[in-house]
Structure formats: structure tokens, C-alpha cells
Sequence to fold (274 residues):
Amino acid sequence: MKISEKEFNMKYLIINGSAHKGNTWNLAMVVKNSFKEYDNNAIFKEIHLLKEEIPFCNGCSLCFRKGKEFCPHYKKMQPLVDAIDEADGILVVSTTYGMKETALLKNFMDHLEYMMHRPYFFNKKALIITTAGGVGARSAAKSIAAELYGFGFNKCYLLSVASFSWNAYVPGKTMIMKCDKISKKFTKDVMSGNPITVRYALMIPFNLFRGMSLAYVKGTEYEMEDGNYYTGADVKNHFYGKGVPIPIGGKLLGSVFYWIGKIASKFSIITYKK
Fold:
């Protein structure tokens, strides 16, 4: 049964963080097929991080201090950021290595860590798919979700599975039903276009940075891109991303941590080698 007879043209981006198309990819394809049940006109695009050949982040911190365009790997990264920006729903696929995501996926996210200071993807929702031969898939999914929430993602759904096989996993009837259930929920959420209320845990660092950023605006000794971001029209005087619902209690919490950040900026400055 379809969610609605209305025709949608939702764009879904599948980011494959695994080095090959094995157990996790097989599960992702089951989910993809379920998506088609609820949106006949769904459009899919795939990014395979192994093929992108993104160099390792060298920790220069230029993205933090001066802006993402100063990253030495900007030409590699920006098309991928644009692809996320253009998509309505994101599927992040990763096998589990040591209860964490793959190095391929971690390196990709390392290049976006400036968004931990300057969140961007406020209207994005993601479905994270992980598998493990035994244990750890849930831990890997949570690790990925923590990063995405830090980048501003509005909602992350988790689908983690113990496959108990080496690239020979075939989802059974129960798992297919589970995939269908989470696919229905995810596509319905994406097609609604409505952001959910922001988590308080995300508002705290956002408003701390908003207050502290006043010490790093243009003209200060250690000016940083944070100063421009938090004094810009889209963020200034906002307790979180524009358009994201914030309850009254959240606004109060945001005000408190904004002032804490503002006071802290007078006594503690982050310096860097010029």
C-alpha cells in the first residue's frame, strides 16, 4: 500500500562507505526496492567513496579558520556536499570495522568536521545502514548518526544487522519486513518535507558557539569563519537552524548557553599559528 496517490519525485542519495558491494550493500538494495513501493517516482543517485579517492584529511584546520573553500581537497569534496544538498533523503551505507564505520566513510566525514562548528544540513534526514559479521553494527550506526547530527541533520534512522556471514548475507523474510517498515517511515518523513523539533543536545553547542563566535569576527586578532557564520543573516538571533521548530524551553536553554558562550569568550580565546 502506497503512502499517497500523489506523485512525488523525491531524490535519494546513497553514500556507500564500504570498499565493496557486500552484505551491507545487499541490505541497502532491499531498502531501495522498498522505497520504490512508496514512491514510484523516486530518483536515486549513488556515491561510492572508494571511487572518489578522497585524500586523507591532513588536519590543516583551514576549513575551520578560513572556510571550506580553503580545504586542499575542496574540489574533491564540494561536488559530494552539493549532492547531499540536492537530495531529499540520504542513505549512508557502511560495513562495521571494530564497532565503527569504515575508514573510507570516516575520512569523508573528517572533511566535513567544520560543520560541527557551523551546521549546514538542517533540513536533511538520513537512514543509516550497517552490518557486522557478529557484533558492533549498532555501535557503528550510532557513531555515524552522531556525526550527521553534528553536521545539522534533522533526523537519523538506524538499520543495523548482524549478518553472521562473509559477503553471503541474504536477508530473510523477517528482515525484509523490517526493511519495509523503516522504509515506509523514512520515505513518509522525507516526503512530508517537515523538519522535526531540534534535540536539546544539539542546541547547547550551537548556542555556545554562537556566543563565543563574537570573539572571532572580522577584525579581531584570531578571526575565524565561525564569526562570519554566527553573525550572518541566516543564523544571527536564531537559536538553531532556520525553519527548525524550537519549543519555548529550547529557546530558554539556547539563551542561557548563548550568554555562557559570550562570557566565556572574554576569558578564553582559541589561538592558532599565523
The mean pLDDT is 93.
